[in-house]
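Notebook entry, structure prediction.
Reason for the run: the old model in the group folder had no record of what sequence produced it. Starting over properly, with the input documented here first.
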Amino acid sequence: MTRFVLALVGGALALVAAQTIGTALVQGLGIPVPGAVAGLVLMLAALTFAGSVPQGLGTLADVLLRHLNLFFVPAGVGLMAHLALLARDGGALLVAISVSTLAGLVVAGAVFVWARRRQERAS
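New structure, fully documented this time:
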């Protein structure tokens, strides 16, 4: 149990460090991207360079993905609080969400195919 908790803490520290570095870079360079996104790009680059995911980070990612639905609760509450805006701009929001979801699926699929081919070449 202690090992599991230490792995989670190590993974959380890695995520916070990536976000902090990303935020510092974005603010320092004036890049119009959220610091968390820049931090995730930096972490992706670091993990690609390392060639593997550290155990603590992988354990934390598994826990977060297992409870991913909890992250949608605040968004759901926000929707309920602003139903009038949703009724007024619902069509535009639906188009934006559909297009961005489709783009996300295409990019995720392309990254999966790229990673799978890379893994097959390595083995």
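Summary: The chain has a mean pLDDT of 91.
The old model has been moved to the deprecated folder.
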